[in-house]
Design goal:
By secondary structure, the protein is mainly β. The protein is built from 9 helices and 48 strands. The strands form 9 sheets. The chain has a 22-stranded antiparallel beta barrel. The longest helix has 22 residues. The protein is globular. The N terminus is likely disordered.
């Protein structure tokens, strides 16, 4: 099977290289002038071909030249501060036959806030930027938007949860060190989740997505106090009614969106200037996947999610947004039996287990938020300040208020009767594969009644001031000043009652003749009510001239927490430099142009603890825990280049993080267990490389490679590694030990291809491989910390999707210009459907037994054995989507 797949993969690459020469497209040219409604030239107007990286800006005279793919229908948008975003739809340009498009932008009292939001945010983003169309058909087992990040961004891994989790680790950080925003609202995740099987549908909904940006580190002061990454998700504002229905063997989704316009002119120009809405509902069940696990039983996972986003433009100065979300995740397991075989060629072990009891977990989450955007003054291009320059200014204020509530409970009462046997491994023996001895026999009893309620209320005021100055000599200076102040209230009510009992041959271990001693007994009640204050200010200055482009963002962030009474201040700096000799029109794909940018970023990144970090392994809460602290230094190169007349982007970044006041933790599947105090120092260093572009015309692909080293050292502890030398054990002492997220090499790839002479058929290939994560023996994981490693994780998911119906191809394009035929086709049965596609997917194509965690068993001589708990095996899936 491996040979067959390797041959198919090499054949695909050879075909792709051959198709480069066959599918090269000639370019068409669009020229024109952009005027403002007062008759003055539109200087610096952003002109963008939607769904691509092709863009340009107008000159001081409002003139532009745009090179686009020839003989292809495209949509072009013209964006300028406080003016209506004008869209030219369905443009087709023949090669060597330039066309002229002159545009006049209208200032719109209604769409002022929206114009500010869209144009500013798209100019601001310099991280990984992904459109919805690029990721819609990636085969994933959970359907969550964040799980796609591990294919798109370097240095990202799903950790031990593998394909069953939507959580991710970035550059040596854990799941709690990542920031997630949706339309500027901060998103939280459940606290009690133990395994990927229990995880439901996280907040971001892919059906509602417009675009997302992701930063792996060195991010700006406008983002919160975390040490790893930022995922910034933006929901769409539809221009017309749209809807979709999707489904698969793992669940389904429904989406509805639309816009209500103020007048017919606004409707004609497709400007969402009055009221827009997006609504999404999802259902997920993973029973089909979980049936492939070693533990056989009755799995009943049911996850439901409903959310909506509503935006209303009151007038030219005011905009109101409301967002709401509800999710309910119920996970029920009645285990029956399991049998796991592991070991090496000279010793094989088989763990056989019978179960009694059940586990029920419920995670219910509510989120509600409101945002008010206000433009007190500005809103466009001012008059000439002198004979040499003009300026454009704008001020935007945004007030956000949100509330998050999580109701979580775990009810576990499971007894398992286990037997650990040794298996004959001699190939020439008559009893090969049979039991030759029993190493351990006993039972364990796991009981839990845990209930947690978390309430987080957040109020924040943000401001943005834009100042653009255009010199007649071609020099441009832009300033984006941002500031904000916020208040957060956190109320945590937690009741823990959990214990584990180990019984071996009728004796509860450790043996005590006077009492039944249960070592892992936790019973606590926690009630916390705390307040946080935060503020930030940052300025982005961009200077453009004929010789170079320079951008610098400098900012500082401060926060204070009433619980530990700690004030933290975090200055941050990012710089980008592009020599003009390397910066050409990237839209001109007929030439081997290049755009080379150098990046340098540094700053202090302090992470104030949340409730999870305060609770130690015994369930006790330490309110004196200080913020974890780190210094980030990273440098890199961003190279946009043309190859095979297609655009590619290569990014490489080297980084180093010095960390102190760390709160150590152990990871069990996706459950993080903190030590509840600032006990360690450490560092993270690595190198990330990413290449993305259109290997096949119109289809984006990614290749990521990362090298990582994440180490930590407990204060006052000499870490060691033990090795067996004959009959003696040698101990080597080290200055530090691996973190639980220390994954030395990570490689991931997402590749898209279409079939010859069948552009409606598409192949989607997702591949990831990473060296093994470290782990240690639970009762001795401080001095001899994380001394062992899991086997390497590798997985291939592949899917073939087929477009069964496309209205643009079957009706709009086919009958373009023929009114009689178009009128006839308006009665077509599928006229109201924009598209239908179906996908056939194979998860874990090579049927690899990746490991999620270990079950630890002691034999009669008190020796510990790690029995792996594996993830899902090969599974097939069918997925469809209908767009209206």
């Amino acid at each position: 099977m491996r040979c067959i797949f390797l041959l198919a993969f090499v054949t695909t690459l050879l075909y792709t290289n051959f198709s480069f020469a066959q599918d090269e497209q000639l370019m068409g040219t669009i020229i024109g002038t952009v005027l403002l409604d007062d008759g003055t030239p539109g200087t610096g107007v952003l002109i963008l071909v939607e769904g691509t990286d092709i863009n340009t800006v107008t000159s001081v005279n409002g003139e532009y030249k745009l090179l686009v793919p020839a003989n292809k229908l495209i949509n072009i948008s013209y964006s300028y501060l406080a003016y209506k975003t004008y869209k030219e739809l369905g443009v087709k340009v023949a090669p060597k036959k330039p066309i002229r498009l002159d545009v006049t932008l209208l200032s719109d009292a209604i769409s002022g806030p929206e114009a500010i939001v869209e144009s500013f945010e798209k100019r601001e983003i310099d991280a990984l930027h992904v459109e919805k169309a690029d990721i819609e058909r990636i085969p994933t087992t959970d359907g969550n938007l964040t799980s796609l990040i591990k294919y798109l961004a370097p240095g990202v891994t799903a950790g031990t949860g593998g394909e069953l989790t939507s959580q991710y680790s970035v550059r040596g950080g854990n799941y709690d060190e990542n920031l997630v925003y949706v339309n500027d609202f901060e998103i939280y995740r459940p606290l009690l989740v133990r395994s990927g099987q229990q995880e439901g549908l996280i907040f971001p909904n892919g059906d509602m997505l417009d675009y997302l940006s992701f930063s792996s580190g060195g991010f700006k002061a406008q983002y919160g106090d975390k040490m790893a990454s930022v995922l910034d998700v933006h929901y769409r504002r539809p221009y017309e009614f749209e809807a979709s229905v999707g489904g698969s063997l793992l669940g389904g989704s429904v989406y509805v969106g639309g816009a209500v316009y103020k007048d017919s002119i606004s409707k004609q120009r497709k400007v969402p200037n009055r009221f827009t809405y997006t609504l999404g509902a999802r259902y997920k069940t993973t029973s089909y996947l979980l049936s492939s696990l070693d533990v056989k039983g009755e799995y009943v996972p049911q996850f439901v999610d409903i959310q909506g986003d509503f935006i209303y433009d009151i007038n030219e100065k005011w905009q109101v947004e409301a967002i709401g979300h509800y999710s309910n995740s119920i996970y029920s397991l009645i285990p029956r039996e399991s049998s796991t075989t592991t070991g090496l060629f000279n010793q094989a072990l088989r763990l056989t287990t019978l179960f009694e009891g059940q586990e029920i977990s419920n995670f219910e989450n509510f989120t509600a938020g409101t945002a008010i955007t206000f433009l007190p003054w500005g809103g466009g291009r001012d008059k000439e300040i002198d004979t040499t320059a003009t300026v454009a200014t704008n001020l935007k204020l945004k007030l956000l208020a949100s509330h998050y509530q999580s109701n979580e409970n775990e009810r576990i009462d499971i007894i398992n009767f286990y037997k650990l046997d040794e298996i004959e491994t001699g190939l020439g023996e008559d009893n090969f594969g049979e039991v030759i001895g029993t190493l351990a026999y006993g039972e364990t009893h796991h009981f839990a009644r845990n209930f947690l309620q978390a309430n987080v209320t957040n109020v924040q005021l943000k401001g943005t001031w834009l100042y653009d100055r255009y010199e007649r000599t071609g020099i441009e200076n832009h300033h984006w000043l941002k500031w904000g102040i916020g208040y957060k209230n956190e109320i945590i009510n937690d009741k823990l009652k959990e214990w584990r009992r180990l019984d071996s041959l009728g004796y509860t271990l450790p043996v005590d003749t006077n009492q039944v001693y249960i070592p892992n007994y936790i019973r606590t009640t926690v009630n916390l009510n705390s307040h946080r204050l935060n503020a930030y200010v940052q300025n982005t200055w961009e200077h453009k001239s004929m010789k170079h482009l320079f951008r610098m963002t400098a900012g500082v962030r401060a926060s204070y927490w009433t619980l530990n009474k700690e004030l933290i201040v975090s200055p941050r700096l990012q710089m980008y430099y592009t020599p003009r000799r390397y910066q050409n029109s990237i839209a001109d794909t007929t030439k081997k142009t290049k755009d080379l940018t150098f990046k340098l970023a540094t700053g202090l990144y302090y992470q104030s603890p949340f409730y999870r970090e305060l609770r130690d392994l015994r369930g006790e809460v330490n309110t004196g825990v200080r913020a974890q602290k780190s210094v980030h230094v990273l440098g890199g190169i961003v190279w946009d280049f043309i190859m095979f007349k297609r655009r590619f982007k290569f990014i490489t970044e080297a980084y180093y993080k010095h960390q102190w006041d760390l709160i150590p933790y152990d990871i069990e599947n996706v459950r993080i267990r903190y030590y509840g105090d600032n006990l360690a120092t450490g560092y993270v260093a690595g190198l990330d490389l990413r290449l993305n572009g259109e290997l096949v015309d119109g289809l984006e692909s990614w290749i990521n490679l990362s090298f990582l080293r994440a180490r930590e050292s407990f204060n006052g502890v000499n870490h060691g590694v033990r090795t067996l030398n004959g009959t003696t054990i040698d101990t080597t002492y080290l200055s530090d030990a691996p973190k639980a997220t220390d994954q030395l090499v990570i490689f991931s790839m997402y590749f898209q291809d279409d079939f010859p002479k069948a552009p409606w058929a598409r192949l989607n290939f997702a591949f990831t491989v990473g060296t093994g994560l470290p782990f240690g023996i639970p009762e001795n994981n401080v001095q001899f910390r994380n001394s062992y490693r899991f086997a390497a994780y590798h997985r291939i998911d592949i899917g073939a999707s087929f477009g069964l119906w496309d209205r643009k191809i079957h009706i709009d394009k086919k009958y373009d210009g023929n009114k009689a035929l178009f009128k006839k086709m308006s009665k077509h049965a599928l006229r109201g459907i924009r598209g239908i596609w179906v996908s056939f997917e194979v998860f874990n194509l090579m049927d690899v037994k990746n490991v999620a965690s270990n079950t630890w068993i002691k034999d009669f001589s008190n020796r510990s054995y790690a029995i792996p708990n594996v993830l899902t095996s090969r599974r097939f899936n069918v997925r469809f989507k209908i767009d209206f």
